[in-house]
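Hi team,

Filling in the usual template for the complex we talked about on Friday. All components are listed, including any nucleic acid strands or ligand strings, so the model treats them as one assembly.

SUBMITTER: L.P.
PURPOSE: interface mapping
COMPONENTS: two
RESIDUES: 460
SEQUENCES:
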Amino acid sequence: MQYELYYWPGIQGRGEFPRLVLEDAGADYADVGRDKDGIAKMQAVMAELGVPFAPPFLRAGDVVVGQTAAITSFLGDRLGLAPRDDGGRFAALTIALTIADLVDEAHDTHHPITGGEAYETQKPEAKLRAAGFRDRRIPKFLGYLENLLAKNGQVLAGNEISYVDLSAFQIIEGLRYAFPKAMAKQKIPKLLALRDTVAARPRLAAYLASKRRLPFNEHGIFRHYPELDG
Amino acid sequence: MQYELYYWPGIQGRGEFPRLVLEDAGADYADVGRDKDGIAKMQAVMAELGVPFAPPFLRAGDVVVGQTAAITSFLGDRLGLAPRDDGGRFAALTIALTIADLVDEAHDTHHPITGGEAYETQKPEAKLRAAGFRDRRIPKFLGYLENLLAKNGQVLAGNEISYVDLSAFQIIEGLRYAFPKAMAKQKIPKLLALRDTVAARPRLAAYLASKRRLPFNEHGIFRHYPELDG
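RESULT (copied from the run log):
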């Protein structure tokens, strides 16, 4: 069966989290949003199905699943990139959803008032929100992940690399791009070691070196605006 | 087995979503945060387990699960309040996570800059954020749910009332409390009918009339600040 991933073209955004799972597993998938007429196809499928509120979403036969962490959890279970026992599975889902919250908060640093208007319309508020994000939220979230690694071993849940470790890789990459100065101050050696382990996995290394891996840019979730990095 | 729900006492907050599932199912559960010394117990368990980033979380034997929608999905599966086929299960999870996003956005109307400081320190920004929430986000999210009901029938996912319908009840209650004027303008007859169906379920009706159902207040997620209701 071919998986169909639907996400906006041109940005990594939230779509990159399920894409990393598909790439690491070597799964057969169509990246529909990047097709010619991909956006129109995506909008037609959303209107037909009703369930996805917004991209990303995945179609896998009769299953349609939206919401980043739910997609990665679903794929992790199907593709052997998730713990197998319920204790590990629900730990992984909990952590993945916590990472999704961190992604939301990263987004809101540049859109603290409304997602319906450009960053440039809300710069003073963005500066205020970004300060709290840098000073309190990044250390709190990354300290939480670092603590989990101290408790659980070299991976965040279960005994082997799972989808949630791939998501941890992506959040480190995104935050380093957007907030290089703030990230240089974090003391997260275990998390950075996990990031390196993930980046070195053969299929992911090939993906990351390919043109399929888009560069970060100022249209996505993780945006580098120096004025927001303190 | 007795379920252990952990959440802050004194507010409905995010804990109310799993609580509604437990109550509707007539499950045996301890509402640990509301015990004498409940907060200390909760913090001790969080420190021991590592996995929950924040309340609410649930302990069910060897499983520990945090994040509102993940808890309700887990409980729905275990307690017969979820669709049984994968198509329905993942539709329910997707919708539950979308409702959780709406809860986050409702929260951020009164804390647009930082959750670390009181509403009173961020009132001008709150007014701006609340305007976009009322004018664009409430109609978009509730219109999405209304459309799902038009497609799927009288419930949001599957063929019978599930945990996600209970979550829809709660978001309607919360938004009506916080934004009565904005909510009076919404055209969502199917969603309001679902709300009434849920409220009339015998165990839930008993719960809602009991002292266990706390009133909304200005310490929770849904706060009634008239200046934010337009």
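MY TAKE: The beta strands of chain B are 3-6, 29-31, 57-60, 63-66. Residues 58 and 65 of chain B are 5 Å apart (CA to CA).

Thanks, L.
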